[in-house]
Design a protein that fits this description.
CATH architecture: 3-Layer(aba) Sandwich
Shape: globular
CATH superfamily: Vaccinia Virus protein VP39
Order of helices and strands: EHHHEHHEHEEEEEEHEEEEEHEHHHHE
CATH class: Alpha Beta
Helix content: 25-40%
Number of domains: 1
CATH topology: Rossmann fold
Strand content: 25-35%
Radius of gyration: 20 Å
Number of helices: 12
Structural class: alpha/beta
Mean pLDDT: 92
Number of strands: 16
Low-confidence stretches: none
Amino acid sequence: MSGAPERLDHFMARANAAYYSRQNPFADFTTAPEISQIFGEIIGAWTAVVWESLGCPNPVLLAEAGPGRGTMMADARRLTARVAPAFHAAAQVHLIETSPRLRAEQSRRVPDAVWHDGLETLPDGSMILVANEFLDALPIRQFRHEGAIWLERHVEDGAFVELPCPPPADLPEDEAALEGVLEVNEPAEAFAEALAQRLVAQGGVALILDYGTPQNPGDSLQAIRAQRPAEPLAHAGEADLTALVDFGAIARAASRAGAATQGPVPQGTFLSRLGLFQRVERLARGRTPEEAAALMTGARRLAEPLQMGGLFKAMAITASSWPELPGFAA
């Protein structure tokens, strides 16, 4: 695209909208639910325990933002049907998804779901929401300062350009976080704040699992194309653009709405506390050595610190003064 400079978040939103409407994202990357069925089963068990802590509301909304192919929800529902039938019967499944192609995939796995374009059309009521690898694909802005002058990144003719701008809102208190590139994900913060407002007003808990850091990550924009890293500006609409989630900013957004947060904790810690490897051992019984090894390989990929276990984090958003939730308590 040539012409006037385009703000980075506008470029990213346009590129990802084209990518998810035209490409098969699961040919380029693999999400946790696709690595192992155990991931969705553990999340399903977690939601059942949280439902009990909410006082067993009936009905309760079981929502997922960015459900991919519907694999996690299908695995979660299969487990709750077996081990938590009362919760399974009370839960009304709602999926936040804008892609018609992905909705079709999800409907084959979760046929009883109701679909929404956004959080605002979910019906009223107590809710348990899970967002796995949802926020990292939302468009970011990038800023840098030189003395008192702030500059914002734009895209022009396939390259970055920096233009003067007003100082960003909600600057981190830690001055060290302002050195280098400051990334701001306004849609992610707006989603977290709106979600927190709803949880405070109507009751419920949200679980966010994503690729991220506890504070501003700096310049973390990346692209994946054909299962390989690519230049972020080179293949607009043909590559998946993501950036690390700033969990500190998400916590501040939730706090502005009067909610509390737990975490972030590494995904590996969260899953291990919930019995990831015990579940692997149970599933491996009676399997061939090759099948048992495959189960363990998938679990390690989800949990090991140098793989997804350390790169991904878990955070819960709750009403204030909520007791520690499973997976967040040491």
